[in-house]
Amino acid sequence: MRRWLVRLAILGVICVVAGLYLTRPRTFGAEALAGLSADPARGEQVFWAGGCASCHADPKAEGDAQLLLTGGRRLESPFGNFVVPNISPSEQGIGGWTALDLANAMHYGTSPDGHHYFPAFPYGSYVKATLQDIVDLKALLDTLPASERASEPHEVGFPFNIRASLGGWKLLFYSDALLVSGDLTAEETRGRYLAEALGHCGECHTPRNPLGGWNRAKWLGGAPNPAGKGTIPNITPAKLTWSTEEIVEYLTSGFTPEFDSAGGHMAYVVENMSKLPESDRAAIAAYLKKVPSVE
Amino acid sequence: MRLIHGFGVAVAIIAAAGAAFAASEYEGAIKARQGLMRLNAFTIGQMAAMAKGETPYDAAAAQTLADNMVMLTKLDTGALWPAGSDNAATEGTNALPAAWAEGSDIGAKYMAWSDASVAMQAAAGKDLASLQGAMEALGGSCGGCHKAFRASQ
Question: Which of A70, A73, A81 has its CA nearest to residue A118?
């Protein structure tokens, strides 16, 4: 009896070690960014499209104060509160990072010291961002003001605070597959990139399973508010019946066709979207019309 | 034993009724303030339609709308926002507890709306360009409160 138990234990250890190895944090090779030049002006467009300030700035910051990416906002979820870190170009932030570090973080969800990030940082969407955009973004981030505020640990309880388990999460749910395929015009393709990669709309608007992975069949079909009360709307054509002009107006001013004014997190999204060229907002509207309807 | 059980049931029923009564205690205020918001939306919507050229500019009509907007900002709406009518404490509203919290800057944000309305009142009846010029500040002032004090959806 005891021999079998010992063999079972050894098998268990082998499985865990193999599992940890197979799900180890992935990174780019050193040559991945070769030949890409950094442009902070393009990076600023990426910055607003990606909504970085909405999470990483102080929750009360307005206007230019949003450019101080000091962290501290709490993202509530069924797994606990994720505390947003300082990503300003300081020692407490990401001052020492290379563009490759940022690429590994945004594309693979891997930290510079080789650990998994929690997908509260939406690398599940940013995985689809181009490396050129990431390089441009890094150039922009380097120009922003520095904050010396120390990042705080996440308020996530056992067992969700075991970072190694995110390897398993990524194995199950991490994918760079596009959600809307088929024949898209150039405008719709741009809209898809803005919505699926940078704008990370799906992170809020798509329902998730109990482990927090997307229900991809219901892409943008609406979800309960992870912070507790209310729901985040279904923005597929089945429920979002606005014209593309009305969608563009909403993304520009926050006003619905009935002149209701966006509240909560969407108000931040509108602020970011309003800083992009109108053609980008029109592209997002065009993309939304092509998303498969979810009832 | 049955007596205790029955007593327990009676207490539960009274407590539930009390809770239900408490929830509906704010229903009137909540419905009234949501109606007020719809009136704000309607008023600004009519002005925005002129500003965007969707309806023809009419100086007298624009002035009336702008005057109405200023009147709306002057209403004393204290009774519409009683303590305990936030979305954490009761149903049927999206108003966040932050609006009632110590040190909330809701007053300043309200003044932004009021100031923008006064500016619109001076501009609306002049000509279309003046109306359009005052539109951005007025429209933007809605977001000041909604961003901070209104829950998503």
Answer: A81
Domain that holds residue B139: 28-149
Distance from the A261 Cα atom to the nearest Cα atom in chain B, whole angstroms: 6
How far does B86 lie from chain A, in Å, by closest CA? 12
**Is ipTM beyond 0.90?**
no
Q: In terms of domains, do A133 and A201 share one?
A: no
Whether residue A103 is contained in a domain is answered as: yes
Domains: count for chain A:
2
Residue A81, pLDDT > 80, answer: yes
CB of B44 less than 8 A from some CB of A: yes
Domain co-membership, A243 together with A269 = yes
- pTM, entire model: 0.87
CATH number at B57 reads 1.20.120.10
In a domain, B47, yes or no: yes
Is A9 within a domain? no
Does a structural domain hold residue B11?
no
The shortest C-alpha distance from A1 to chain B (Å) reads 53
- Chain A residues close to B142, C-beta within 8 Å: 254-255, 261
Kindly state whether residues A125 and A94 are assigned to the same domain.
yes
Domain range for A45: 36-150+161-173
**Residue A65 shares a structural domain with residue A97:** yes
Residue-level pLDDT at B19 = 52
Q: Which residues of A touch B140 (CB under 8 A)?
A: 253
